[in-house]
Specification:
By secondary structure, the chain is of the alpha/beta class. It is built from 14 helices and 20 strands. The strands form four sheets. The chain has a nine-stranded mixed beta sheet. It is globular, with a radius of gyration of 26 Å. The N terminus is likely disordered. The structure holds xanthosine-5'-monophosphate. Xanthosine-5'-monophosphate binds next to loops.
């Protein structure tokens, strides 16, 4: 979500995914009834080495089934609805008639039971939330007693013919059920969340034993399959790819280079708003160490000119986005004969746009990427990561030798330091912020705290404060330090950094960075604050 490379909003008529090149691989269809955990289900399935795709529960059955020869099983997610709501998502019985095992989780279980003529009691009968003890009689993967994670209002009251209970909890006689001659497994609890002790084992049993899915989804074979698909698609053509130095575009560039060698040209736009040493590092790593054809464009002056007099945060983003497009488009035209443009679109981006087109509600990340490219650039798109989660992209990067510092890099916003300098941007302010930020990050890395937090940076505040240095009064700038812990950047807590570390950083910044006489630590959570100051 925080790559500096733009996402082109034009319709994607053609993409490259490994499936284009390989024999059908075992696939699980995850049907989304709007659960906040749907993406987690998909990630757990893939962690078991099984490929899966998420489909809105409203998608046509043929789309959910996809290549029937590859389909091994269906997972029905939970969801926020009650089966009693007038607009409750509908469970279509065709999903049970595909001849593959089906796992119904929470709402997926309740909706199936109701559709088959069983009884589901509404929420006021007493739901269960949080850790609950499961008494399992015959749940493959789970022992007799274990802790599971429940989160349901409605509950199953009686089963349709041919179904049996295989586990219960104190508040729920049907915590797990089996039916349809072993083809349906229903769980009232959530096996996908880490609080469910044997969740991974239960899912593993379902996928490998019940569905017979192999462990073919491995990033090593993904890299080779995707490379083959890219080579076939590109033929004798040429590809360009924007490189920002973030993990997605870096892994993308290496994958394309692995597949295409010199048929790839990467374009790196140095917008003058990067952190200390960053532009140099991108060039050294990709042109130097990896030998990629890299066009590095020093466009700092152009960006700074566009930002002159601009103080509103959104206006800054717009100005930066516009210059980025101009510069990138110019560089792309200079590449003349390139017919393809590669982009690092990830699966969550795809799911998000899918949800926006009629699927049930899902957690939606804020995207602040700079805008798309002009229409007269008639590229064919290549998006090899369209079906990958971020942690899978990191694995691809690692496999291709991407340095760990880039693989596990904290996100850095597209508009860069411009949104960390409230007010007008000047060259001097950028230099001050760069120096302070570098000290903060250096000490975080040295102390091991960098790896323990999600994002850390300095902000140059638009105020000056009085200080005293020697016996002289100073009237200088204030730097705020921001460091947050967050699983997803949607909500965040400020990191409880040790006082000694904060003291060291503060003292170094005040002593080493000219023009700064005060350092403060931002202790606001998101919400109500945001991670960036602008
Ligand atoms: P906020 O400030 O919205 O940030 O809490 C959440 C995450 O998004 C990043 N961010 C951006 N990334 N362009 C980007 O590519 C932007 O304009 C932008 N604004 C915020 C932020 O760094 C954090 O990781």
């Amino acid at each position: 979500m925080t790559e500096t490379v733009s996402h082109d909003p034009r319709p994607r008529e053609t993409t490259v995914t490994p499936q284009d090149a390989s024999t059908p691989q075992d696939t699980i269809a995850v049907v989304d009834f709007g659960s906040q955990y749907t993406q987690l289900i998909a990630r757990r399935v893939r962690e078991e080495g099984v490929f899966c795709r998420i489909h809105p529960c409203t998608a046509p059955i043929e789309e959910i089934v996809g290549d029937r020869a590859a389909l091994r099983g269906i997972v029905l997610s939970g969801g926020p609805a009650s089966v009693y709501w007038a607009d409750a998502p509908v469970m279509r019985l065709e999903l049970l008639e595909q001849g593959v095992p089906v796992l119904g989780i929470c709402y997926g279980l309740q909706a199936t039971i109701k559709a088959l003529g069983g009884a589901v009691a509404p929420g006021d009968a007493g739901g269960e939330y949080g850790r609950t003890e499961l008494h399992a009689e015959a749940v493959p993967g789970a022992p007799e007693r274990s802790v599971v994670w429940m989160s349901h209002g409605d509950r199953v009251e009686s089963l349709p013919a041919g179904f049996t209970a295989i586990a219960s909890s104190d508040g729920c006689p049907f915590a797990a059920v089996e039916g349809l001659e072993g083809r349906f497994l229903g769980l009232q609890f959530h096996p996908e969340v880490s609080h469910t002790e044997y969740g991974a084992a239960i899912l593993s049993d379902f996928l490998h034993d019940r569905c017979g899915a192999g462990r073919g989804w491995q990033m090593g074979s993904y890299v080779e399959d995707a490379s083959r698909a890219i080579r076939e698609r590109v033929g004798d053509g040429r590809v360009i790819c924007g490189l920002s130095g973030g993990v997605d575009s870096s892994a993308l560039a290496l994958l394309l280079h692995h597949a295409l060698g010199d048929k790839l040209t990467c374009i790196f736009v140095d917008n003058g708003l990067l952190r200390q040493g960053e532009a140099r590092q991108v060039v050294d790593t990709f042109q130097g160490a990896f030998g990629l054809r890299l066009q590095a464009i020093d466009a700092g002056d152009e960006f700074l000119a566009a930002l002159t007099g601009v103080t509103d945060p959104e206006a800054k983003r717009k100005a930066i986005g516009k210059v980025f497009i101009d510069v990138f488009a110019r560089a792309a035209r200079d590449c003349g004969d390139a017919a393809f443009l590669a982009q690092g679109t990830l699966y969550p981006d795809v799911i998000e746009s899918m949800a926006a087109h009629g699927g049930p509600t899902m957690t939606i990340k804020t995207h602040h990427n700079v805008g798309g490219l002009p229409d007269d650039l008639k590229f064919k798109l290549i998006e090899p990561f369209r079906e990958l989660f971020k942690d899978e992209v990191r694995q691809v990067g690692r496999l291709l030798g991407l340095p760990e510092a880039i693989v596990s890099r904290h996100p850095f916003p597209g508009p860069g330091l411009a949104v960390r300098i409230p007010g007008e941007i000047t060259r001097e302010k950028l230099a001050t912020l760069r120096a302070a930020d570098a000290i903060f990050r250096e000490e975080l890395t040295r102390s091991g705290w960098m790896a323990r937090t999600a994002q850390a940076f300095a902000v140059l505040l638009p105020v000056r404060s009085v200080g005293v240095m020697g016996d002289v009064r100073t009237y200088e700038s204030v730097v705020a330090l921001r460091c947050v812990d967050t699983p997803d950047f949607m909500t965040a807590d400020w990191s409880q950094l040790p006082y000694e570390l904060l003291a060291l950083v503060s003292s170094r910044i005040i002593n080493e960075v000219a023009g700064v006489n005060r350092v403060v630590y931002d202790i606001s959570s998101k919400p109500p604050a945001t991670i960036e100051w602008e």
